[in-house]
Amino acid sequence: MIPVKNDSIETRLAEVREELLGLKNFPDSEFVGIIKELGFRCEFCARCCTKEFNDHVFLLDSDLERIRNIDPGAITPAPYYEFCDQKSRFYVSGYALKTKPDGSCIFLENRRCKIYESRPSICRVYPHMLHREADETGKIDWRQISGLNEHGSYHSELDDSTCEAVALETRAYEEAYLKQMIDFFEAVRTHFGKKGLKHVQRTYDRKMREFLKSECELEVFVYCKGRFEKHNLEPDIESL
Which Pfam families does this one have (predicted)? Predict the structure, then answer.
């Protein structure tokens, strides 16, 4: 078999590996200082639990088994599938929580989380984060908080131990996320190489247009704990 070159996979794999290295080299003291300066405190407004403020809640593999034990019907393939092969099959790096018709999280009830003690990792660290992201001018730099001044209160007095704990937990989440992405890209690369497949953007765009017009279902392979799980997704007729 002639190997299929998938430049997009290699490029994205290299980018994620570079970000992981940057994350490991980001000074703890600087991150702790930023957390202390911002002084964020949650005011239980529940805005972060809606699509108005957050597009989706991505689940790490470590979150998935816990959520499945609580409610196996609460998960769905994460949106924005990374790849589509020439046979119109999509590939995505993990699962996300489902949302209600109004855009709120499936576990949100009366502005409170029904599974608060077992909530996903990203919910535990939000709005703190530590990853590279483009700003409004397109400049890519480290971003340490999401939704600045859109929810919660700021400039609260936080002691050093609290800031250090937030930094530690946030860094652990970001590292776990990047490692999961690296595993996903490597798995796709191996799968494509064995099967003679390649990512085809034209096929991706065409199938998504058909899906959004309710003309077809999608065959999606979700990466989970070292393997792919197949899903056949039907279009959401009610939202059309």
Answer: CxxCxxCC
Q: Where are the domains of the chain?
A: 7-239
Please name the residue that has the structure tokens 């001018």: 137
Cβ atoms of 217 and 88 closer than 8 Å: no
What secondary structure does DSSP assign to 81-115, as a single string? -SEEBTTSEEEES-EEE-B-TTSBBTTEETTEETT
The amino acid at 223: Y
> What separation, in Å, do the N-terminal and C-terminal C-alpha atoms of the chain show?
43
For tokens 């939202």, what's the residue? Answer: 239
Q: Which helix or strand (DSSP H or E) is residue 140 part of?
A: strand 140-145
Determine the Cα–Cα distance for residues 7 and 92; give it in Å rounded to an integer. 17
Question: Which pLDDT tens digit goes with each residue over 210-238?
Answer: 999 998 999 999 999 999 999 999 987 44
Q: Which residues sit opposite 75 in a β-bridge?
A: 97
DSSP secondary structure code for residue 235 in this structure:
P
pLDDT at 52: 86
- Alpha carbon of residue 179 to chain centroid: 12
Q: How far apart are CA 189 and CA 10, in angstroms?
A: 8
Q: What is the pTM of this model?
A: 0.91
Instruction: Judge whether 127 and 145 are in contact, CB under 8 Å.
Output: yes
Dig out the tokens for 72 from the structure.
Answer: 């196996």
Give me the pLDDT at residue 132, please. 92
Going by C-alpha positions, the residue among 56, 12, 21 that lies closest to residue 182 is 12
Residue given tokens 């077992």 in the structure block: 118
Cβ within 8 Å of residue 169, ≥6 positions away: 124, 125
